[in-house]
UniProtKB/TrEMBL annotation:
Enzyme class name: isomerase
A cellular-component GO term for this protein: cytoplasm
Metabolic or biological pathway, per its Swiss-Prot or TrEMBL entry: Carbohydrate degradation
Protein name: Ribulose-phosphate 3-epimerase
Organism name: Mucilaginibacter phyllosphaerae
Cofactor: Mn(2+); Fe(2+); Co(2+); Zn(2+)
Cofactor binding note of this UniProt entry: Binds 1 divalent metal cation per subunit.
Binding site for a divalent metal cation: 33, 35, 66, 175
Gene3D superfamilies for this protein: Aldolase class I (3.20.20.70)
Alphabetized InterPro entries for the sequence: Aldolase_TIM (IPR013785), Ribul_P_3_epim (IPR026019), Ribul_P_3_epim-like (IPR000056), RibuloseP-bd_barrel (IPR011060)
Active site: 35 (proton acceptor), 175 (proton donor)
Amino acid sequence: MNHLIAPSILAADFANLQRDIEMINNSQADWFHVDIMDGMFVPNISFGFPVVKATKKHAAKPLDVHLMIVDPDRYLKDFADAGADSITVHYEACPHLHRTVQAIKQLGCKAAVAINPATPTALLKDIIADVDMVLVMSVNPGFGGQKFIEHTYTKIAEVKAMSANANPNLYIEVDGGVDGHNIAKLKAAGANVFVAGNAVFTAADQPAFIASLKQA
């Protein structure tokens, strides 16, 4: 499986969001990563349905919507209706995770589950066969620009090993501190979807930087 690049629009220039969306459209990126934060599950607030709808209007690539919110079941249909192609919920926020995953799939979206840096990968054993993707957070969720947590390599390798028989086509996504210095090592550990925010949008030549990640 060729690896995918999903720039995070959380790091885009919100005064020029359409411009940045068009840049991603015209780059070698594969998905748009859309971070939804509620100020409760994580100590930050990002944006909601209007920005997702606006992004979908101009995006030529799938929207990978990452819900960092409490009780995400309340809003699954709203995000699907707003244009999400895949919806990621946090293991830590879903007491009935199988039901949530089934609900996402019934809405016609890919279903993914994320785990925070302190959440053991072993907790995914009973759900890994049922999801399209696992997102391994390599920083504590809530803010961009954080330092990459080195233990992430081990966690990705554990998810890869767990999925070998149960779900060999699983997407393994990594989010937080991904850049040109660590993407090759993350890929070697088993990741195949890479979220990059600050690294993309602070690059002098953003399309060229995305291309370098794609070629890593």
